[in-house]
Write a structure and sequence with these properties.
By secondary structure, the chain is of the alpha/beta class. Helices cover about 35% and strands about 25% of the residues. A hairpin with a 2-residue loop joins strand 2 and strand 3. Helix 1 crosses helix 2.
C-alpha cells in the first residue's frame, strides 16, 4: 500500500511516502507562514521523486495534534480533501508512534473518513473591542 504521511503541527512540516511500513521518501522544510502556498507542490515533489503521481496513493496518514492551530488546520484539510478526492482511506492519530499506529489501522482496512484536529487546549476566545 502506498501511503502519504502529513505532519504540519510545527513550523517545520514533514511529508513522507511509505510502502506499507517502509519509508521510501521524505521531505522536511520550514513551511511556517508559507504552508498553504507550498503544501501541494511539496507533496507533488516527493511523489515525483519516486516516480509516483496522485492516483498512486492508496492511503493517507496525518498527525492530528496537538499543535499549531493554523498548521494543523491546513495539513488536515489537505489530507481530508485528498482522501475524499482520490477516494482513499485516511487515518489521523497523535503521539510519538502516530505513523506506525495509523499505518496499522490502514492495513486493517480502517478509515476515519474525516480527520478532526486536536489542538491540545480549549479555544481562547477574546471579547470584541467596543
Amino acid at each position: 500500500m502506498i501511503i502519504l504521511t502529513i505532519k504540519t503541527d510545527q513550523p517545520e512540516s514533514e511529508f513522507a511516502i511509505y510502502e506499507d511500513y517502509q519509508q521510501i521518501a521524505d521531505i522536511k522544510y520550514l513551511a511556517h507562514q508559507d504552508l498553504a502556498k507550498t503544501i501541494h507542490s511539496k507533496i507533488a515533489e516527493i511523489l515525483k521523486a519516486k516516480n509516483l503521481d496522485w492516483p498512486n496513493l492508496e492511503g493517507i496518514v496525518c498527525f492530528k495534534g496537538p499543535g499549531s492551530f493554523t498548521g494543523l488546520r491546513i495539513g488536515i484539510t489537505v489530507a481530508n480533501s485528498l482522501a475524499y478526492g482520490l477516494n482513499i482511506p485516511i487515518i489521523g492519530d497523535s503521539g510519538d508512534d502516530w505513523i506506525k499506529k495509523s499505518i496499522t489501522k490502514l492495513l486493517k482496512n480502517q478509515n476515519n473518513k474525516i480527520v478532526y484536529p486536536f489542538y491540545g487546549a480549549e479555544p481562547n476566545i477574546t471579547q470584541p473591542k467596543k
